[in-house]
Amino acid sequence: MDSFNFTTLDKIQLNQEVIIKKIHHNNSNMTRLMEMGIIPEEKIKILQVAPLGDPIEVSIMEYKLCIRKKDAANIEVIYAKNS
Amino acid sequence: MQKIAKKEFTIALVGNPNTGKTTVFNALCGMRQRTGNYPGVTVEKRVGFIENDDYILELYDLPGLYSLRATSNDEKITLEVLTGRLDKSKKQDIILYILDASNLKRNFYLLLQLLELNIPVILVLTMIDIAEKKGIKIDLKELQKKLPIPIFAINAKNHEDITRLKEGLIKSISNLENSRTNFDIKNYYPKNILEYYNHCLAQFHQFFANHHINFSLTYPDIFLCLTDQNEFLLYINDLLKENENHPQILQELKDFIAHIKEGSKEFMIFSNAQLIQARYKIIEQILKDVIKQEETQEKKTFTETLDSFLIHKIWGLMAFLLVMSIMFQSIYTWASPLMDWIESFFNFLKEWVSSSGLFSPLLESFINDGVIGGVGSVVVFVPQIAILFLFIAILEDSGYLARASFLMDKLLSWTGLNGRAFIPLISSFACAIPGIMSTRVISDDKVRTSTILIAPLMSCSARLPVYVLFIGTFIEPKYGALIAGFCLFAMHSIGLILALFVSLVLNKKILKTPSITFIMELPEYHIPSFRNIYFRVIEAVKSFLKRAGTIIFAMSIVIWALTYFPHDEEAANKHIQPFMQDLETLIRMEEEDLKNGNPFPERRIQIELLQKEIEKEMASFHLSNSYLGRMGKFIEPVFRPLGFDWKLSVGILASFPAREVIISALGIIYNVGEANEESESLRTKLLNEKFPDGTPVYTPLTAISLMVFFALCAQCMSTLAVIKKELGDWKYPVYVFLYMTSLAYIVALIVYQTGKWLFY
Question: What is the pTM of this model?
Fold first, then answer.
């Protein structure tokens, strides 16, 4: 069991579903992301990485969102239990 | 029967981006719509009308947004239109909120904020079919129970659904008049948060009352204040501008906000995140029994299948290059026959004016070179604008534009721009005018501004003739095709490379945009709606003709006057006196030939040649003695260190309104008459041109220096006019003109002086 396995979203593998634990909320961009549904307890996963390595496409709530890795590093996540 | 005045209502159409809001608007209003701008900002204002026997409904299609937190122009305008701050008489009666049913949760976030405003809201659910494909079942009856406001579920492309919505809209309006429902979203809010909001509102109310300001805040304002104090102060600053003590009030407001924030702990609120999470908790509560997610067998949706190809590391980039090259080629190839046609039409008009003999020489020149030339230089851009917007509308409506931005973001991120800037920049290689207009796809105001400011550095197609002439005359014959090709490539790259550095400096040092990032929804793919594309193209063309066109036209008249006056006929006649004497001699000889019964056909040819020569000499004399010509001579010392003589200086000055003019201007100055970039006579003239001391004016180095100058200089009044139109302030075209012209001068100077030092 690695239920204490905290990490940040930019370090997650493709298609690995994780749960958002905490948002390091330090600027207006993070507020915008939270308003768009990136909030604690939501499931999130990385679907694609752009050919040049950044940004990434994530699936959140019922839709797909593109964010930069720099912002993803502010999103603390934990692996879902059944994975 | 007595005629009763129709009742008028204003309705605001609000929704997240990609919800099909504009499709609904176009379907509801059809052709009954017009566009404009909101005062002071360049957010597009679209208003449409629905009318029946009893009602006139005025619909405002507001920009698509995710939140009412007024941090961007789009959000500010929306909030101001809704609250009636922008125009007191136009407070919105009703909000028509369009939601994407396949993505209800996030769409509800903005809905909550709208409901907080205490304006009646009507819900319209679209994309039910997509929701069902995703395995989402929506229980409308349950939703209606939780939210007792009018709710419609429609397919925006279905005619019957739209008729039903129209009828429903009118019915709900008449119901609104009779009975106000006492539904209040705030009943759903946690007690501590509601109390905190109300506490803040009351405190602010007191604050403004103390300062005798008649001004009331709303929940979304409070939310902005709590989450982003700086943006809130900027926003209040705009609203208070007219108040004379506003700097002092703002200072007090800062301390006041700190005090209010301090108070949040008493309400058990410890972070802004809590306020956002609270909203989503409410949404969950409302949607709990409404949405039923059926287990799908993890089958990929159509969008996911397409995406695994279109944003794939290799295939994605190839598809992107293909799309871009098709778009780019079309702008070049489809537009050029249309542009030629427009040009020949205006030439035909000019010839008609000249041959009609109805006008004095001054009037003829004014009509031909001023008026017709001016109108022509506006209309000639229409094909490119229409074609680019056709592509952009298709790419945006289908959902591909977002993918293209996703692919290209990294290339631009280090300069402070983001992926959205890519298409406007690439389009500017054809022509900066449609390119700048297409920056409307950029939602971030600062990114949009800096993209507009660097777009004119892209090497547009009007620079090509200049490169062709000078490379063809000085580089290719001497160094071969390979070097010539490289030279052409280098000229196209220099603008792009410098543009990226300009953007870097601009974003980091001048606009100071530390927090720029790239947050963008990747919507589901759709088949684009024909109607949306049609309106998009028509709007782009119309707004260009109306707003930029008038400025371009006025500038054309001024430039014409500068090149025409003082038009001293007497001096010109004196100048061509020796030629006239030759001509007279020739004519006398011809008469004698005839008298002697010995006609000499070559004599006629000689006479005609000389007459043409005189005409060219006259034109050349008038241009070099016009105000513009005099300015060229005056300014020659400035251009000498770049290797240019006074004739080139006149040519450069004459081509400030439009760079392609340099070739015809050189044609006139060098007495070769009508010239284009391929004309041999002009090339020979240039090769043989000498300074007074006998050294050639043009060396390959001068040619390179000149091309670099043209690659970087702001020689296009239409671009400047469009920048003014898009950014709404004259200071921006002035900045662009100054920075580009100095950049051009400095880089050309470095190139010429280094070259001279190295090779000569």
Answer: 0.83
